[in-house]
Amino acid sequence: MKLKSLLSTCLLVFLSGCAAPTLKLVNHVGPVTYDATSEYSSKHTEQGFIVVAFRSVHRFLPDTQADYQECSDVLNSVAKEYTPVSWSTVNITAHEYNGVTGIANTTFTYTYKT
Questions:
Q1: Quick check: is 84 in a domain?
Q2: Is residue 101, in this structure, part of any structural domain at all?
Q3: Residue 89 is assigned to a structural domain of this protein
Q4: Radius of gyration (Cα) for the chain, nearest Å?
Q5: Rounded to whole angstroms, what are the CA distances from 51 to 15, 54, 60?
Q6: How many contiguous H segments (helices) and E segments (strands) does the chain have?
Q7: Among 60, 58, 61, 73, CA closest to 108
Q8: Which helix (H) or strand (E) holds 43?
Q9: Domain that holds residue 27
């Protein structure tokens, strides 16, 4: 009886992780471009060149610094004509890691000054 209860609990935990809502707080500033693990938009304004992006990757173990570094890589690949930024200067809007599914989602933005 205990084994059946344990298996049921494990199944519920696994399924709840798969059904958990994904955090995706993205306010794009222009047309959206999609690639394998991210989506982004950009726009020239009086303040500079704004890039807004969302990145979703699968990680066996959470690694926030790697997530943030990959975010700055996305931003720098979009804004090739501007000075590259490091992960520590990027504005992280939202970040989550689902330990059951192993999915890390990050929403981020940066304004390159003109």
A1: yes
A2: yes
A3: yes
A4: 18
A5: 35, 10, 28
A6: 2, 5
A7: 73
A8: strand 38-44
A9: 22-112
Name the pTM for this structure. Answer: 0.75
- Give 33-42 pLDDT, tens digit per residue: 998 888 999 9
Q: How confident is the model at residue 9 (pLDDT cuts 50, 70, 90)?
A: confident
**For residue 63, what pLDDT is reported?**
87
**Domain tally for the chain?**
1
Gap between the Cα atoms of 48 and 65, Å rounded: 26
**Digit-coded pLDDT (tens) for 69-90:** 999 999 999 999 999 999 999 9
Q: What is the pLDDT of residue 10?
A: 62
Q: Which residue has the tokens 């979703």?
A: 56
Asked if residue 99 belongs to a domain, the reply is yes
CATH number at residue 49: 3.30.70
